[in-house]
Design goal:
The protein has a five-stranded mixed sheet with strand order 1-5-4-3-2, covered by helices on one side. A five-stranded mixed sheet has the order 6-10-9-8-7, with helices on one face. It has helices spanning 4-17, 42-53, 130-146, 173-180; strands at 32-33, 58-67, 70-78, 82-92, 95-105, 163-164, 187-198, 201-210, 213-224, 227-237. The longest helix has 17 residues, at 130-146. With 251 residues, the chain is α+β, with helices and mostly antiparallel strands.
């Protein structure tokens, strides 16, 4: 029996082939689709994959993790546009019953510190610390990103080893502090919706705004020796309600 990670890899690769069998891991009668622009149910996915396959798409699954009934993947998409994405799937009784995603246009070059949106560590370690790391990131996002307690930033970040993958940010702590400052209200984190973890990797899904636009923040963190040492993210606009093709909501 393929693992949940393997089943999700097969499902996502179906975007390249358009093979309707790739979506059989989805429970059609229970499936809840949270991409507001994608029809819900197996038929919706099969139609989407068939349409996308005609554009000669490419998908690379860069890193994939499992958290009990959830699988979350970090992906590199090249079809109509080149995007970096996070995909989250929830399993029930061996089949996928729920899906969320967050997509951002891929940067054409490295950030100021020479890192791309996708490079870096890929394998989870310290599995015994999964719950400890989940709580740590929930606290970080709540205190630093939501409540703007910037005076506590040093207690969360390994300033000597921190690696930043955001295309507009750099590795050093002063640059991070400036980027996270909420004084100008350009980037606001308002509500944590989900925190998923496997060992040293933790993904936090948060609702907020960027330059006044309603967005979804997906932030992936790697933790080592009790501090954040690496960070990836995507920011995706939440479409206006009149553009949705399902009623399930982004979150």
């Amino acid at each position: 029996m393929p693992s949940k990670k393997e089943q999700i890899s097969t499902l996502l690769k179906g975007i390249e082939t358009g093979d309707p069998q790739s979506v059989t891991v989805v429970n059609e009668s229970q499936y809840i689709q949270h991409n507001p622009l994608t029809k819900t149910g197996n038929v919706g996915l099969a139609e989407l994959f068939k349409r996308l396959s005609k554009t000669n798409p490419r998908i690379e699954i860069v890193r994939v993790f499992e958290d009990d009934d959830y699988v979350f993947a970090h992906t590199d998409y090249d079809f109509n546009v080149v995007e970096v994405g996070f995909e989250v799937f929830r399993f029930e009784n061996g089949l996928v019953v729920e899906h969320w995603d967050n997509l951002q246009l891929k940067s054409s070059g490295p950030n100021p510190s020479g890192h791309t949106m996708l490079d870096g560590a890929v394998e989870a370690t310290d599995h015994a610390k999964t719950e400890e790391n989940r709580a740590f990131i929930r606290s970080f996002v709540s205190e630093i990103l939501v409540d703007d307690q910037m005076e506590r930033l040093d207690s969360y970040i390994d300033s000597e080893n921190y690696i930043e993958h955001n295309p507009n940010m750099a590795d050093d702590l002063p640059a991070l502090r400036d980027a996270l400052s909420l004084n100008d209200k350009q980037r606001r984190y308002d509500k944590i919706h989900r925190v998923l973890a496997e060992g040293s990797f933790v993904l936090c899904v948060t609702e907020g705004s960027l330059d006044g636009v309603h967005v979804s923040f997906y932030d992936l963190f790697r933790i080592a020796s009790g501090k954040i040492v690496e960070h990836w993210d995507t920011v995706d606009e939440v479409p206006p309600r009149n553009q949705w093709v399902n009623n399930n909501g982004k979150f």
